[in-house]
């Protein structure tokens, strides 16, 4: 299905929030919002989903801790050294290496999760961006299906968009 990128430029935050509500009511939810400053109203209107990066951190940390305990156990079994009548596999000394590897693996998997979740590196040039987003204007970019492009333009102008831009470039979504 081919999609067309459409950008609505809004002078006021309330108009952008209204446009987001109207787009969501029309069952169009895949959009990107540009704002000159952080805004709780926009964030509540978007209703962002939970980031998957925290799961990458959890899995990486647990993997690191398991690796630390496995490394200590394997090393103790490979070179058994009885000291003071203690058992060969004693978990308290392994906690240090398990903690260190949990931190290392957690940090590395967090960075990996960040790159995967944000789809970095992004080599393409964003055709629809306006420098006025840094000067006080708000923007909503949506990749609308070609057959609903007119509906999206109507929603944005009805919500109070100062300008609505559309490119002729079609994005093929597989």
How are the SSEs ordered, and which strands pair?
Blueprint: E1 2-10, H1 13-25, E2 31-34, H2 40-46, H3 53-78, H4 91-117, E3 138-145, H5 149-159, E4 163-166, E5 171-172
Antiparallel strand pairs: 1-3, 1-4, 1-5, 2-3
CATH architecture field of the largest domain: 2-Layer Sandwich
State the CATH topology of the largest domain: Alpha-Beta Plaits
Tell me, what's the shape?
A: rod-shaped
Q: Helix tally?
A: 5
Oligomer category: single chain
Low-confidence stretches: none
Number of beta strands: 5
Helix share of residues?
40-55%
The main sheet comes to:
5 strands, antiparallel
User: What is the CA-atom radius of gyration, in angstroms?
Assistant: 26 Å
H/E element order:
EHEHHHEHEE
Q: What is the distance, rounded to the nearest whole angstrom, between the alpha carbons of the first and last residues?
A: 7 Å
Tally of separate domains: 2
Q: Beta-strand level of the residues, as a percent range?
A: 15-25%
- Summarize model confidence as the mean pLDDT: 90
User: Can you tell me the CATH superfamily of the largest domain?
Assistant: ACT domain
What's the short version?
With 174 residues, the protein is an alpha+beta fold. It has helices spanning 13-25, 40-46, 53-78, 91-117, 149-159; strands spanning 2-10, 31-34, 138-145, 163-166, 171-172.
Give structural notes:
The protein is 48% helix and 16% strand. With 174 residues, it is α+β, with helices and mostly antiparallel strands. It has 2 domains: 2-49 and 128-172, Alpha-Beta Plaits; 53-117, no CATH class. The radius of gyration is 26 Å and the shape is rod-shaped.
